[in-house]
Amino acid sequence: MPHSFYGVLGIGIPNNSSNITSLSNLPARLKMGGIIEKMVYSMYQLSQNSTRGVVLFGAIDYSKFTGELLTVPITTLLEDSMYLPRSRIEVIVNHLQLSNGEKKVNVLTNSYPAVLDSSTELIQVPRALANNLKYILNADNSSSAYVIKCPSDSSLTLDFEFSGSFLSIPVLSLVTSRYAGNCTLGIIPQDQGNYIILGRTFLKGAYVVYDLDDREVSLAVRDFNEGALSSIVVINSLIASAVDAPNYSSTLLGSISREPKATATLKYNKLLMAVSKDGLALSIKMTLAIVLAVVLLVV
C-alpha cells in the first residue's frame, strides 16, 4: 500500500522553529547566504479553487491582494502546548463580527490570541466562542461541523479585527462543502485553551506577509483575479503599501470571557437575502501543498 510523506519546512520564528538551538531555519539561512535581504516571506493560495499555495521568500506579489497590507505585531502570549505548533506565529484578534455590508452582528467583543497556522486545515475557536457563533449563525452542529443555510448574498463576510483594523473574509470562502442548500463551515470548537487557530480555511482568503526580523505580520484580502500579471517586488527593508494597524502600539490582550453571551438582536438569517436553490455540490476544501517560489536577489 503506498504511503504519503510530508516534510516539515522550518519557517517560523527562529528561536522557536527547532529544539536544536544551534540550527537556523530556512529564512535565516537564505538571509545568511545573501539570497534574501530580510527574513520575510509571503504566502497565498494559488487560485480560488486550488489545493496548492505559494510562498515567496524575500518578496511580495502585489497582484495577489487588494487594498493595503495591514501590519500587526507578533505576540508571544501562549505557553508551549502539545496542541500548538512549536514554531507558531501569534497575533491578537480583538473583535469578530458578521456583516452584509450594511448591517453587522457582533460575534466576539473580547480579545483572543490567535495562531496563524498553515498546517491546520480549519479555524478552531474556544467552545464558548463557538457556541456564540452557532447562535448567531443559526447553525446546526449535530455532526460536530457547523452547517448553515447556504447564503446567496456574496457580500456576507466574517470580519476579523486585528489591532483596530478589520480583515473581511467572505463567508462563502469559509465553506468546505455544500449539499442540498446547506453549507458546512470550516470552523470547529476546541477545548484546549482560550485561543484561536486560524488555519487554511482562513488563510486561503488572505494574503499574509511574515516579517521575522521585525516580528510583524501584514495581512490583506486575497485578490483572485487570475488574469492579473504578477507584480513581484523584492523586500529590502520596509514593506511598501504596508500600514500599521491603528492600535499597533497598544496591542494588548483584554479580558477573555469564558462564556461569551450572544447579545445580538439581529440574527444571521435576517442578514441573508435568500437561500441558494442550486443544490450544486461544491468543494473548496483546501489542503495547502506549498509551492516554493524563491526570489533571488542579484546584486
Automatic annotation (TrEMBL):
Transmembrane regions listed in the UniProt entry: 279-298
Organism: Scheffersomyces spartinae
Keywords: Disulfide bond, Hydrolase, Membrane, Protease, Transmembrane, Transmembrane helix
Family of this protein: Belongs to the peptidase A1 family.
Xref: Gene3D superfamilies: Acid Proteases (2.40.70.10)
Pfam families: Asp (PF00026)
Keyword Transmembrane helix: yes
Residue ranges of every copy of the Peptidase A1 domain listed in the record: 1-220
PROSITE patterns: PEPTIDASE_A1
Organism superkingdom: Eukaryota
Name of the protein in question: Aspartyl protease
GO molecular function per UniProt: aspartic-type endopeptidase activity
Biological process, per Gene Ontology: proteolysis
InterPro entries in the cross-refs: Aspartic_peptidase_A1, PEPTIDASE_A1, Peptidase_aspartic_dom_sf
Coiled coil: none
